[in-house]
Specification:
two-stranded parallel ribbon; 2 strands; globular
Amino acid sequence: MADDDKDDAQNPFKGTPMEQIFGAFSSGQIDMNQIMGQMQKMFAPHEGSVNFELAKDVARQTLAAAGPDPSPTSAQQRAVDDAARLAEMWLDTATSFPAGATSATAWSKAHWIEETADTWQQLVEPIAQHVVKAMGEALPEEAKAMAGPLMGMLSQAGGAMFGQQVGQALGGLAGEVVSSTDIGLPLGRDRVAAVIPAGVEAFGEGLEHPASDVLLYVVLRECAHHRLFQHSPWLRSALVGAIEEYGRGTRIDVAAIESQMRGLDPSRPEDIQEALAGGMFEPERTPEQQRAVDRLETLLAFIEGWVDEVVAQATAGRMPAATPLAEAMRRRRATGGPAEQTFAALVGLELRPRKLREATTLWAALRDRQGAEARDAVWGHPDLMPAASDLDDPLGFAQGEKRSQGDDDFDAELGELLDGGQDDDGKGDGAGPTA
């Protein structure tokens, strides 16, 4: 173990596509085929700012290194099918939304990577694009002129390095998730309720509840998410739009980078590696980005709070284990796992809800005072949604009390986002809802 740590410390390319190339030279076991393969991957043409084919390869390799990942058995698939049928029956009694999923399936962790990769690419690309653009714009004009012929090659290498990091994060996430909507976003195929039996089993460890109850609870949440996203076609656009807006707000603090560069010793590669790992080139969060983050976290809270409330109603009087399982799930969503934290460090976004308990209380209070149909009808249009300020007074929203205009900017910003972001000349930017 000590030798491994020593080797890692001496490898300045650790965590980049050059890591294996450096390792081959330093070990004295040079495999030219391996080196050429790595170079081809690094400089392979790719669309966008992220080499996502490389990202998927790295994700699979990261997952394989973590241990076995057997395909779900026929018995596990039958258990998922049975749980989905029961879940949909129970949810019919708790929400006015009809079933959103038409099929249920069990995935391996590797299958999760394959099925969600396209969505992850859509989410990561805007951030990577604006980071690369901001770094290019931050270069002095004379440096741009000198680097002109190499800019294309550097862009390819940058896309490979970003892809490597994204792949490592996704490979880690695959070992933590329990379903396709686990992080509050619809990552998988439309109308397919998908769970990862291995993840469900890991979630249930130490909870002292029957495995069948744990699976049913996860499937209930998965099916509830699908009902919500199918009924509210604007919701996906709003979530993706907030992430895209976060990317557009990227700025690079060139002075801070130059200051750190002056303090580095070029003869000590480990110092450079430490600076990179410590966020030397991490963009500083701008006010625009903070607003996008606040909007995303609040919307995720409304989504997860609604799911919590509906599942609680569906299981009331039927499933005693649901209450402790809900608390365990809430703690898990509030803290996030190691891989989720890695992803957050990479793109600067924590895909976690803010004020989840308050959101659950808001939906429960609305249902208690006006009925389940009124609670669900709010999702029909973004203008009907509660504001971020309503999370501080969920009972007031349920009673229909007028909100403070000064605190009610969530609706306006969300509406602007969905309308395409009107400019001063009245023309949108084309980023409106796709539904």
